[in-house]
Amino acid sequence: MWSLWVGFNALKVVLTPYTNHLLLTYAPQLGGTAPSFARVLEDALRMFVSQACVFTAPYAVDRSLKRPANQFAEGPRSISSTTTI
Q1: Comparing C-alpha atoms, which of 12, 14, 19 is closest to residue 37?
Q2: Does any domain span residue 82?
Q3: pTM for this one?
């Protein structure tokens, strides 16, 4: 579920130039002033980074719990030692 929300926010960042163009076009027609591109991009990036951080911490913990406890104790294995013919 969180990955959908992070994906939506990433799409929002990508579409920021288009959104800014629409704001610049329609704001004067409605009698308002459009925010600057930097402000629109800042809002989109702030939301994306905050939501990505919310997603990253549980993902990192989940990935670390699924490793076997003795994975690092054995050391690296070569391909030839694990291959049987």
Answers
A1: 19
A2: no
A3: 0.56
